[in-house]
Design a protein that fits this description.
Elements (H helix, E strand, L loop, with lengths): L5 H42 L6 H38 L32 H5 L5 H12 L4 H14 L3 H9 L10 H9 L7 H24 L2 H32 L3 H12 L6 H8 L8 H16 L4 H6 L5 H42 L7 E2 L7 E6 L12 E5 L16 H17 L7 E4 L3 E4 L13 H15 L6 E4 L1
Parallel strand pairs: 1-4, 5-6
Antiparallel strand pairs: 2-3, 2-4
Helix pairs in contact: 1-2, 2-6, 4-14, 5-14, 7-9, 7-14, 8-9, 8-14, 9-14, 10-12, 12-14
Length: 498
């Protein structure tokens, strides 16, 4: 089968998704008119006292559900169209400023990140990242900031190759939740999951449930037969029970409210990945990390999401009245702690597997959109090597790209670039560095061919002073050089870009 060019595939899918959105919009409009007619019919029949009045009312209620599903499907089609619009923008070099720049990962003191434009508007992270969760963004940023071992790189290349043509998977992940990215803070969620349990006794939870049931029965007896004394006694016991656990309940509620945001998107992402089957070793291992032997992670995260939603509902007027006799907040705190006792030890494995899968999916999307960019070849020799043919900068449009052959090897370990201002010296240095970063992350490179040994990158191209930290440019340069020298004692030869 002849592979479809990314641009043509995106355009075809964009047209199809726009057509789906238009059809669903027209269907929703027709359903709205039918609902209006049914509403008027109910009013007329009710005014005339007809026995048939409930029929249009029931039909109206059923159409409300159908109409809601139609609107949600239309919104999903719009989000799918936006996904392919962003893809076309990347292919047509209109992407700068439209994606996630990764500003929170910027570190002026990093040994190459600022010099090579990894983060910020128009940076490498914005071009590559399509992650929907912060875990995926954290993982991808970490891969760009730290070179991987050769075996890890080859496993990532194999995984990216397998994922490259799974466009349906990337579309489905992009459509989960709303347009905004998930706000789940992985570190906060992991810290919360690893905390020691607040409630150890199962008997306390059973007692809370029993008191709530007694309160419901006593309240019913008061309402039907006017027996207020049993309800008052149960309420007094509940007050004492709630007071005894008050501080611990507040701790549990505040902790989960801080740690858990947008868990529905997290559960949806896990569910979509659980449906996939893989063959490359890295993806097989990551998929196995989501197999717990019990309820799948997506279902368990969905349950935690429901508990958090119910906690958020406690300010509802109805629950303000009936919640205290039912020990509503206390029982939910017990349920949250029970969830954490059972699932908490596994959360780190789920989160890390999810982050890696999202990062690999982002690299696969980048590989799909740049079919001419090959994976680099890594040499087994101990000697340092960087040998590139037609090397170009991945952040520059093809129309402005100047490609160069570059060779660094034991017999030619130093290249000195000389030329007039604006002749492209620093651009060539950045081109070498950013392609080395892509190679060491497991991604394709912008070149006809690249052979290299495992390398650590160090750059001093755009070092500036810092007014906030009181560091002069001279001090900043010396500090950077110190870090570069320290890298020489690491496991990989260092590619110095000065």
């Amino acid at each position: 089968m002849v592979p479809v060019a990314p641009h043509a595939e995106y355009e075809a899918r964009l047209e199809a998704r726009r057509g789906e959105a238009a059809r669903r919009g027209r269907a929703g409009l027709r359903l709205g008119y039918v609902r209006l007619v049914l509403g008027l019919l109910f009013v007329i029949l009710g005014w005339r006292g007809s026995w048939w009045a409930p029929v249009p009312l029931v039909a109206f209620a059923a159409l409300v559900l159908v109409h809601d599903r139609t609107r949600r499907a239309q919104a999903r089609s719009h989000r799918a169209a936006a996904f392919y619009e962003r893809g076309l923008a990347r292919l047509e070099d209109r992407w700068a400023g439209a994606g996630e720049p990764g500003e929170r990962f910027r570190d002026p003191s990093h040994v190459y990140a600022e010099d090579l434009d990894l983060f910020g508007r128009g940076g490498l992270f914005e071009l590559v990242s399509t992650a929907r969760t912060r875990m995926g963004e954290h993982t991808l940023a970490g891969w760009l900031l730290q070179p991987a071992a050769p075996g890890v790189i080859l496993e990532r290349q194999s995984a990216v190759t397998e994922l490259r043509d799974r466009l349906d998977l990337r579309e489905d992940l992009a459509l989960l939740g709303e347009e905004a990215r998930a706000d789940v803070d992985p570190e906060a969620l992991l810290r919360w999951a690893a905390e020691p349990p607040v409630f150890e006794s199962v008997a306390s939870r059973l007692a809370a449930a029993g008191l709530a049931a007694l309160a419901a029965v006593a309240g019913t007896a008061w309402g039907w037969w006017g027996l207020a004394t049993p309800f008052a006694l149960v309420l007094a016991v509940e007050c004492a029970f709630a007071y005894w656990f008050r501080s611990r309940v507040q701790h549990v509620v505040h902790a989960i409210e801080y740690a858990a945001h947008d868990l529905d998107l997290l559960a949806g992402t896990l569910l979509r990945l659980e449906r996939e089957r893989f063959t490359s070793p890295l993806l097989v291992r990551l998929r196995a990390a989501l197999d717990t032997g019990g309820a799948p992670p997506s279902r368990q995260m969905a349950r935690l999401h429901r508990l958090v939603d119910w906690l958020d509902s406690r300010d509802n007027l109805f629950l303000r009245i009936f919640g205290p006799p039912l020990l509503y907040t206390t029982q939910l705190a017990f349920a949250v702690e029970a969830w954490r006792r059972l699932a908490g030890p596994q959360v780190r494995r789920w989160i890390e597997a999810l982050g890696e899968m999202e990062a690999l999916s982002a690299l696969a999307g980048y590989a799909y959109e740049h079919p001419a960019d090959p994976f680099p070849e890594f040499t087994a020799a101990d000697a340092a090597l960087f040998e590139a043919e037609a090397l170009g900068h991945p952040l520059l449009p093809e129309s402005r790209l100047v490609r160069n052959d570059v060779r660094l090897a034991p017999d030619c370990a130093i290249l000195i670039l000389s030329g007039s201002n604006m002749s492209g010296k620093s651009t060539l240095l950045r081109t070498i560095g950013i392609n080395a970063v892509l190679a060491m992350a497991g991604a394709p490179v912008r070149a006809r061919r690249l052979r290299l040994s495992p390398l650590a990158v160090a750059a001093s191209i755009r070092v500036t002073d810092s007014l906030q930290s009181g560091a002069s440019r001279f001090y900043a340069e010396i500090t950077r050089l110190r870090k570069m020298v320290d890298l020489a004692g690491g496991p990989f030869p260092v590619l110095f870009l000065l």
